Inverse folding.
């Protein structure tokens, strides 16, 4: 009599196990004629359009192979990507987040396929600095080591500006830092807040980093991004001091501490601000706004600019059809896919010159090519890249700086503490 | 029948009867097991095993993939010296005010007004309608409610600031969620708004079981509305108030979604709470072991608070039943 509950428990547990095993076996996941592709870009984006083109070419060249595409979200991959890659039901190829805290962690854990040999054998042209985001060393640090992913696009941070407002207030496009501050002052003196800023989000840290890069060179950049030598924190302190002065000079509104990136971009697009320091991912939306003429210049006076290759295509170590995945990766690098990306306002890494048909496509595409071909690369990656979780610290401290809740020294101390705590030990 | 036999019979009766009783009880207990089993399996699978794993991870250095490295109580030691961890618990206390104390206080007054004033004067349908409007935030997904409030709080075009400016009260316009001194009060406001519906509904249900004769007698004695509220309503609602305080205090300690949607712990770290702190360690910094330690301490604190409040409630309701309440 007493054994019955246990027997029932065992039966239920066995049934649960069977159900769960059945669920996770994934049916046709091992089908040699199926390529499973995951990405998170929304349907109307330039990237999604280009990748659908890649899928179409793949299907033409692989009759009998079915492509199963699943749309994920960025947050989904950021928060549970590791678990997906560690499961037995991974896709064959997927879009994954670049950086030490994401691709670096899973590369180090052996969950990604080493593509170094495949890239060499197949002759993939990945020798530009945009592709450094796919390289990870044995500690999972980005920038050198084995190749675990490739990117098909690039991005950089510049200054978007409203040409109509510049003309209306008789402001010239600045080419030096002094001219930039003069332009900011001119607007502020006329009661116009010159910079749209979302300090509650990544634009705050991007502006702080742009100001810090003004005082950094290749050596200090390598120290910050790759732990090669001592970080020059005085550059950050100068940047924080300048940013605080910009708040005092009303170049930045203190309201920006309650404004996320999207709101700041929307306000710029609505014509409420003359300038917006942010990345090329805004190009599509900015180009589509019909009310004013838009332009973009690089952060005046800087040799180095925040930017890098885009997110990665990776092949999970447990992928079932790796050869098909390599074929797909190869197709995404072809001119017909890259040119389409340029045409849609994206920033391709391997488009043919002049392939973009739109003015915005030409502007950002050519500028990115210039940054890539610069003697030192010109791309300074992003401020949160070195250490996992640094973005939260940067956002919190930039907000405190703009809100006047912390001094520039306190802000830099806090960033330094988080940076030092997250540094790889060996 | 000899006395010896009688004694023997008595002994037999004494020995057999309890055995029968025990057997009967044991059969019933065996039968009850079937009812407990599904819940027990669910509890094991969804609570006990994950909690055990969480405790294990909290003793390791683990990045979510690869092998966890056992480091003993290092995460807990670090936790004790982490100012952010303590700040998050300080904010929890503030959110207990916003999610438990204020909604309970407001809820009991609103319920009494609806039950004792609006309902007799304007009809039960009006009272029911008003109760439903109070309850509306409870059925709204928290993501939707959060986005709505973010719009309203937006410093430049949010409805709160634009209304203030339109009324010539521009000086009162604030950077509601962007000012580190103000953000916690702005979040508290949303939490109070979210919780009042729950407390009003529970208290109105509680009031419906109160004997109307009590109020009639009090009225005949010339008691004012406030006197009736103090001596009858508050006293009669004690069991409901205890239940609401327990559930809302526990909810306040583990609050996550409103913070995630409204402020993500900011500006700076002025609204960070333990659940968000744990989440960011799990998923942003991938310090899974450390995040697990935070989650374990949080679970412990919630258990302590829940048990303390439950014991208090049990003691009180026992006194109530004994006529001492």
């Amino acid at each position: 009599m007493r054994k019955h509950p246990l027997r029932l428990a065992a039966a239920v547990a066995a049934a649960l196990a069977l159900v769960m095993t059945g669920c996770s076996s994934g049916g046709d996941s091992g089908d040699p004629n199926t390529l499973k592709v995951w990405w998170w870009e929304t349907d109307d984006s330039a990237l999604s359009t280009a990748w659908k083109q890649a899928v179409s070419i793949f299907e033409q060249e692989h009759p009998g192979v079915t492509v199963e595409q699943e749309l994920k979200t960025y947050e989904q991959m950021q928060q549970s990507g590791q678990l997906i890659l560690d499961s037995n039901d991974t896709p064959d190829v997927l879009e994954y987040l670049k950086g030490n805290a994401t691709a670096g962690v899973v590369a180090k854990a052996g969950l990604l396929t080493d593509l170094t040999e495949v890239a060499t054998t197949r002759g993939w042209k990945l020798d530009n600095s945009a592709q450094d985001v796919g390289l990870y060393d044995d500690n999972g640090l980005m920038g050198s080591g084995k190749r675990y992913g490739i990117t098909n696009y690039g991005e950089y941070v510049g200054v978007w500006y409203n040409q109509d407002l510049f003309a209306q207030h008789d402001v010239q496009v600045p080419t030096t830092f002094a001219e930039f501050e003069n332009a900011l002052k001119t607007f502020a003196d006329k009661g116009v807040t010159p910079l749209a800023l979302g300090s509650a989000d990544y634009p705050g840290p991007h502006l702080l980093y742009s100001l810090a890069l003004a005082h950094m060179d290749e050596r200090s950049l390598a120290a910050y991004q790759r732990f090669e030598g001592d970080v020059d924190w005085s550059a950050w302190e100068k940047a924080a001091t300048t940013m605080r002065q910009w708040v005092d000079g009303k170049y930045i509104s203190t309201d920006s501490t309650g404004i996320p990136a999207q709101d700041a971009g929307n306000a710029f697009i609505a014509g409420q601000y003359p300038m917006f320091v942010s990345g090329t991912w805004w190009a599509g939306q900015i180009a589509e706004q019909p009310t004013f003429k838009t332009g973009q210049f690089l952060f005046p006076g800087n040799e180095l600019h925040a930017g890098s290759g885009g997110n990665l295509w990776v092949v999970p170590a447990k992928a079932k059809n790796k050869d098909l995945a390599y074929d797909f990766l190869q197709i995404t690098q072809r001119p017909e896919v890259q040119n389409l990306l340029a045409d849609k306002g994206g920033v391709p890494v391997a488009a043919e010159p002049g392939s973009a048909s739109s003015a915005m496509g030409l502007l950002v595409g050519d500028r990115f090519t210039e940054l890539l071909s610069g003697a030192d690369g010109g791309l300074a990656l992003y401020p949160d890249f070195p250490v996992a979780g640094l973005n939260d610290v940067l956002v919190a401290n930039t907000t405190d700086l703009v809100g006047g809740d912390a001094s520039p020294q306190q802000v830099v101390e806090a960033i330094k503490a988080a940076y030092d705590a997250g540094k790889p030990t060996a | 029948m000899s006395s010896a036999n009688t004694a023997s019979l008595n002994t037999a009766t004494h020995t057999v009867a309890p055995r029968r009783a025990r057997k009967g009880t044991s059969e019933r207990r065996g039968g009850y097991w079937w009812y407990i089993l599904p819940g027990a399996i669910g509890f094991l699978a969804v609570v006990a095993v994950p909690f055990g794993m969480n405790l294990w991870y909290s003793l390791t250095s683990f990045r979510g993939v690869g092998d966890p490295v056992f480091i003993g109580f290092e995460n807990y030691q670090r936790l004790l010296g982490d100012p952010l961890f303590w700040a998050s618990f300080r904010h929890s206390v503030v959110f207990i005010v916003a999610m438990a104390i204020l909604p309970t206080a407001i809820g009991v007054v609103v319920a009494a007004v609806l039950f004792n004033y609006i309902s007799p004067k304007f009809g039960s349908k009006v009272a029911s309608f008003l109760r439903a409007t109070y309850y509306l935030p409870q059925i709204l997904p928290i993501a939707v409610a959060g986005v709505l409030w973010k719009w309203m709080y937006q410093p430049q075009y949010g409805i709160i600031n634009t209304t203030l400016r339109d009324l010539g009260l521009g000086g009162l316009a604030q950077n509601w969620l962007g000012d580190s001194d103000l953000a916690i009060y702005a979040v508290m406001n949303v939490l109070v708004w979210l919780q009042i519906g729950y407390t009003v509904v529970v208290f109105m249900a509680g009031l419906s079981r109160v004997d109307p004769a009590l109020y009639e007698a009090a009225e005949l004695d010339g008691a004012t509305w406030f006197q009736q509220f103090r001596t009858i309503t508050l006293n009669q609602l004690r069991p409901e108030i205890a239940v609401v305080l327990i559930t809302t205090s526990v909810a306040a300690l583990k609050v996550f979604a409103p913070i995630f949607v409204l402020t993500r712990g900011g500006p700076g770290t002025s609204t960070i709470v333990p659940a968000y702190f744990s989440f960011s360690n799990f998923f942003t910094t991938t310090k899974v072991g450390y995040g697990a330690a935070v989650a374990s301490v949080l679970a412990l604190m919630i258990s302590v608070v829940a048990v303390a409040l439950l014991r208090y409630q049990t003691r009180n309701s026992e006194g109530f039943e004994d006529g001492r309440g």
Summary: The first strand of chain A starts at residue 34 and ends at 39. Confidence is low (pLDDT under 50) at residues 1-29 of chain A. The radius of gyration of chain A is 24 Å. The longest helix of chain A spans residues 3-24.
